[in-house]
């Protein structure tokens, strides 16, 4: 079984990609909605929550852990790899492919405040995008809108516009979606950004990485059903899941 967690429902963008590539692979998804979003919390709390969830999933039989959260990856993935005995796959903004693809020499990166300020992101930019201009922009309020299932409301459109227009004014031709919640807002982002801007997100790359590691797990556990758990389950989050995926699963409560 593959464990996967996020602060909330945004990691379902990664779940969707992994499930599409490996449809028989059982996935155990945990949403830490009692503390979502992670993007406004301090590093110590993010590390503590990530370790609690990772240890719980390893003890529960997960043979591989996907950190389906850019913020948790930026802050806690090194700690998880030290603490756990199973492989840990993180999610990082698609800075490298954006830097390769840009023709304008300008790339926009939309992410949470914690991700934007992380040393991990700074190293990513220095290593792969030193020759281009990377314009950083926080996606203020966007995680909350996705968690509420407000994917196309007037309020969400206003927040998306506030985040995207600075990129357009700067002349970017690539926008990196540096939070797993943001792909669910891609239709709005495309509508505002226009057809000439490319959106990049890492879910497909993460799915390929999981596929490369999960062969034995796939063979052993193919009959195990998917599991969804939340530290704050609600009917509202179930409805949001349905809007995001087009279907929903029963969400079980989890206390950690």
UniProtKB/TrEMBL annotation:
Catalytic residues, per the record, are 69, 179
User: Broadest EC class?
Assistant: isomerase
EC number(s) per UniProt? 5.1.1.3
Pfam families recorded: Asp_Glu_race
The record's catalysed reaction(s) read: L-glutamate = D-glutamate
Per UniProt, the keywords (alphabetical) are: Cell shape, Cell wall biogenesis/degradation, Isomerase, Peptidoglycan synthesis
What are the binding positions for substrate in this chain? Answer: 6-7, 38-39, 70-71, 180-181
InterPro entries linked: Asp/Glu/hydantoin_racemase, Asp/Glu_race, Asp/Glu_racemase_AS_1, Asp/Glu_racemase_AS_2, Glu_race
* Protein family membership: Belongs to the aspartate/glutamate racemases family.
State the function annotated in the UniProt record.
Provides the (R)-glutamate required for cell wall biosynthesis.
Put simply, this protein is called: Glutamate racemase
Source organism (scientific name): Jeongeupia chitinilytica
Originating gene: murI
